[in-house]
Amino acid sequence: MARENKENQRDSDLWSAARASWRDAGGAAPDALTLAAYLDGRLEAAEQARVEAWMAGSDEALDLMLAARSAASEPAPAALVARAQGLIGGTEPAKRRVGGPVARLLAPFGDWFAGALQPAGWAASAAALLLLAAGSFELGQFGTQEVAAMQSLVGQEIAATLPQTSDDSLL
Amino acid sequence: MTDDFDDDLGPLLSGGKAAWNRFVARYAPVIYAGVRRKLVPAGRADDAEDVAQDVFLRLCQRDFRLLRNYDSARARLSTWLTVVATSAAIDHLRRQKSGHQPLESVPEARLAVDPPKEPVRVTIPPGLLSPRQALVLELLYRREMEVAEAAAFLGVEAQTVRSMHHKALTRLRAHFVDQDSAESASGQGDGGGPGHVQQS
């Protein structure tokens, strides 16, 4: 038993000394798809040899492949799933295309318009637009009067600060 | 286990929310396991969720650029995602390692400097060992795996591993015996190299 252990240690030392050659010749890391293909046993002999040379020459490479080989699926926390699902937001692209030319025209202003202008929402949309138009009309009237008053006030203030000159001196 | 998305990533790559939700629900366990496989032994289990989230982010950002690299003709989606996740965990550990750590927070024992130890380094000619033979030696000696474990990793029979191990050692020994003989004949050898070990 002791003799066997000693021999084993000698062989181990021999490989430790020789593996420097592999470390030097390991080459660049293959891409993730090639590594996955290796683990699935789908590589041609030459590509398989390249991956094995890379693994034999790099501790980190072999770590990666051993970990990937032994990783078994395990339940993911619900919080992770919710966060990851939240990375993609919005409605389905197919739904965004529904709604005709008006909906497409309003699409840049948000999905609400596009959704509201789908056939089922025509009545509600028409009522909303009517209300919006009436409100704008009132606002426009009020706004016009307000703007005119403001312009008059500002004009008076500017005139008071200007030196008294004739129109010719400004030419 | 079948990979639901192997054959058709189309709805997912067109940005469909429902397809993405399904993809996340299906592969979160795969990605989470791949990440944890590296982080737990390194004592960084608490980082697993963040690293897994980062993998999902990398998969979907820039219009699913990473995910578009996947080719179902070459490997299973779950295997590819496991490699991507494990690789992300290794990157994370590397970044943590290279990050700043206040000197006063490092235990004294870890700051102790070992006396310089010159590793024995020999060169073997290209082709002396096949990549697989070298890998078998690496798995058995440096990773201290059992023959059965190495065989499982390589996807071969245990007897095949034994055979490759034997052939690899025979070649290495023969090479160093020849090298030592040549050095002795020319009066250059000191008899202390790896080949000397093999002659006893």
Characterise this structure:
The complex is a heterodimer of chains A (171) and B (200). By secondary structure, chain A is mostly helical. Chain A has helices at residues 2-25, 32-39, 45-57, 59-70, 78-85, 93-96, 100-106, 111-116, 122-161. In chain A, helix 1 packs across helix 3 (45-57) and helix 3 (45-57) packs across helix 4. Chain B is mainly α. Chain B has two domains: 10-98, RNA polymerase sigma factor, region 2, helix turn helix motif (Rna Polymerase Sigma Factor, Chain: A); 124-199, Arc Repressor Mutant, subunit A (Orthogonal Bundle), CATH 1.10.10. Chain B contains nine helices and no strands. At the A-B interface, helix 1, helix 2, helix 3, helix 4 and helix 5 of A face helix 2, helix 3, helix 4, helix 6 and helix 8 of B.
* Amino-to-carboxy terminus distance of chain A: 113 Å
Q: Which superfamily, in CATH terms, is the homologous superfamily of the largest domain in chain B?
A: RNA polymerase sigma factor, region 2, helix turn helix motif
Q: Helix tally of chain A?
A: 9
Q: Which pair of chains forms the biggest interface, and how many residues does each contribute?
A: A-B, 63 and 73 residues
Order of helices and strands of chain B: HHHHHHHHH
DSSP strand (E) fraction of chain A?
A: under 5%
Structural class of chain A: mainly alpha
Keyphrases for this structure?
heterodimer, A: mainly alpha, 9 helices, elongated, B: 200 residues, Rna Polymerase Sigma Factor, Chain: A, 2 domains, 64% helix
